[in-house]
Amino acid sequence: MHPTKITRHVPMATTGLLLLVALLDAAVREASPGFLVPLLLLPTVFVPVLVEKWARVRLPASLQWQYAVLLIAGPFVGEHVGIYHLWDPWDKWVHFYSGFFIAFAIVFALGVTLRRYRLDLPPWVEAVIIISVKASVALLWEVAEFFWDMAFGTSAQDHNFDTMTDMMLGSAPGILIAAALIIHRTRRPVQYLDSLLHVPLPAPRQVQVRNVRETADSVDQRQRRSDG
């Protein structure tokens, strides 16, 4: 039994409600800095819906829960609540966790692409794709943190050692998931990876074919107009 559209989006609805409550709380307390993170995060709640419409896929509820946890654990709890400043390792754990979510999302995208375009890639090529894309995301994440710090005066990046450890922690799960995918393809099935690779695709859009046959009367009318 596959989850319905409503149940699939429960994670993002829950996250959106939490962010809205935090935003209203900041408004009641007139805490200007408290507006920033919830306000910037609210649009990200709609990312899964937009991805589904753009790519014509059904995002698994498990991926949406992982995405919701990342939004809450990272910018919301880390920056808005202030855990980043109270406990330094929190940032490392968020980077490490994000690596698993993004790697699983890459596996899902890979499965959709292979089936939609009827491709058959060697397992090692699939592994290279996962590792390469995940490493690129980790790099872009650090670039985004740099510009975030520059724009808002935060301290997501402290020094070069912090940046490099964040990138390694974020990339490591990609290597682990790539290895698991090779095992799944060649030796023993991994149930969760199999579920991501074979999520049911929506039925293709039915193209409405215009009826080119015209009645004799309409043809006669057009002929008369052209003669006139």
Automatic annotation (TrEMBL):
The chain crosses the membrane at residues 36-55, 67-87, 93-112, 124-144, 164-183. Pfam families: DUF2238. Keywords: Membrane, Transmembrane, Transmembrane helix. InterPro entries: YjdF-like. This is DUF2238 domain-containing protein. It comes from Nesterenkonia sphaerica. The lineage of its organism: Bacteria, Bacillati, Actinomycetota, Actinomycetes, Micrococcales.
